[in-house]
Design goal:
With 337 residues, the chain is an alpha/beta fold. Helices cover 39% and strands 17% of the residues.
C-alpha cells in the first residue's frame, strides 16, 4: 500500500481478497487482482491462486516486486522461480525469516531488501549477495499524535500472534510483576491467530493465566481489533516476544504506537536495533525487568511524556513515507535500466 501510494509514476498490479473489499484498499492506485478468499487469511488455496495468477502476470510486467517472508515453503519455491517468471527482473523484500535454517536451501529471487541490518546480515551470510536495508513505513497522517488518555485506570495494550514464544504469556507474567509492585491498570491483549490454530482455546488459556496471576481486569481480543481505537485508548504498548518467528522485523503495530505517542516496552532483539533509544528494552523472557519497566512508565508521568515525544520524533525521522519511497524508486530505476 505504501509503495502504490508513494511511488505514483509506477502502475502496480496487486492482489486483493474477493468477494468483499477491505476499505483500506478501496482507493489504492493501480489494478487489483482478486483472489478467492472467505477471510483474507493466506491459506494454501489462496497461495496457490497467487502463484498461478503471478506466473501469468509476471510475463506482462516490467518488474516483479515480491514482498515475501522466508518460511518453510520458500526453498523449493526459490528454485522454481526463474522458470516461472522468465527474464522479468525481480526485487524481493524480506519482511522476516521464520528460521535461519531455511536460508541454506534457498536461492535469491533477485536483488534483496531486508527491513533490518540483523536480517540483512543473515541473508548476506547465506549467499544472497548485496542486501539493501529499507526500513518499513508509517503514514503519519493515518497515525496522528494523540494525548495520553485521561482515566483513573491506565490501559496496557499487548499485541502479537498466538505463537510459541510470541510474547503473550511473557506479557501477562510481566504485568503481574508490575501489579504486585503496586501498579494499577487494565490489561488488553489484541492477538492474531494463524491458520489451523484453535483460537478460542488459546484465548481461554490466556484468560486463565491472567486470573491465576491475579490480573482481574484483563481482556483478550481477536483478529478484528480496531488498532486505531486501541492505541488511542491505551497508555503503554507491551511487545515482548522471545522470537519473531517470521513476523516483520519491525512490527507495524510498534511503529503505529510510537507514531501515536504511546511508549513501548520492547524485547531486546537484534531486529529492533533501529528503535534503540526510543523504547524501553528488556531481555526476552526477563519478566521481572519488564514488569519493573512497565510500572516505571505507569507511575512516572515525565518518563511517559519523554518517551512519547521521542517515539513520535523517531518515526518521523526514520520511518517516513518520503525516505521509503525515494529508496525504492532508486531500486526500481536500477532494475529497469
Amino acid at each position: 500500500m505504501a509503495l502504490a501510494q508513494g511511488i505514483t509514476e509506477v502502475r502496480y498490479l496487486w492482489f486483493r481478497r474477493w468477494p468483499g473489499l477491505d476499505e483500506t484498499v478501496r482507493d489504492l492506485p493501480g489494478r487489483p487482482v482478486p483472489l478467492l478468499s472467505r477471510d483474507g487469511v493466506p491459506r494454501l488455496p489462496v497461495r496457490v491462486q497467487a502463484a498461478v495468477a503471478g506466473c501469468a502476470l509476471t510475463r506482462r510486467c516490467d518488474l516483479v516486486h515480491a514482498v515475501m517472508t522466508i518460511g518453510s515453503s520458500f526453498p523449493p519455491f526459490s528454485r522454481l522461480w526463474s522458470r516461472l517468471v522468465g527474464d522479468t527482473p525481480v526485487l524481493h523484500t524480506v519482511p522476516g525469516v521464520m528460521n535461519p535454517a531455511f536460508l541454506t536451501r534457498s536461492r535469491p529471487l533477485g536483488p534483496t531488501v531486508a527491513l533490518s541490518e540483523a536480517t540483512a546480515a543473515q541473508l548476506r551470510t547465506a549467499g544472497f549477495g548485496e542486501v539493501r536495508v529499507v526500513r518499513p513505513v508509517v503514514r503519519l497522517d493515518e497515525w496522528p499524535l494523540r494525548p495520553r488518555p485521561v482515566s483513573d485506570r491506565p490501559t496496557v495494550l499487548v499485541t502479537g500472534h498466538h505463537d510459541r514464544g510470541g510474547g503473550a504469556e511473557e506479557a501477562i507474567a510481566s504485568a503481574a510483576v508490575a501489579a504486585r509492585a503496586g501498579a494499577r491498570f487494565r490489561l488488553v491483549l489484541a492477538l492474531r491467530d494463524r491458520p489451523g490454530q484453535d483460537t478460542r482455546a488459546l484465548e481461554e488459556e490466556l484468560r486463565a493465566q491472567a486470573a491465576r496471576q491475579g490480573l482481574a481486569e484483563t481482556e483478550v481480543l481477536g483478529n478484528d481489533s480496531d488498532m486505531h481505537g486501541l492505541l488511542a485508548s491505551s497508555d503503554v504498548l507491551l511487545y515482548v516476544p522471545r522470537a519473531l518467528g517470521g513476523k516483520a522485523d519491525v512490527p507495524l503495530t510498534v511503529l503505529q504506537a510510537l507514531a501515536t505517542g504511546r511508549p513501548v516496552v520492547l524485547s531486546e532483539l537484534p531486529q529492533f536495533e533501529s528503535l534503540r533509544g526510543t523504547v524501553l528494552p528488556a531481555a526476552p523472557g526477563d519478566c521481572e525487568r519488564t514488569g519493573r519497566l512497565l510500572r516505571q512508565l505507569l507511575d512516572r508521568p515525565r518518563c511517559w511524556q519523554e518517551l512519547a515525544r521521542r517515539g513520535r520524533a523517531t518515526v518521523e525521522e526514520r520511518f517516513g513515507v518520503a525516505r521509503f519511497a525515494a529508496q525504492y524508486s532508486r531500486l526500481y530505476e536500477e532494475l529497469l535500466r
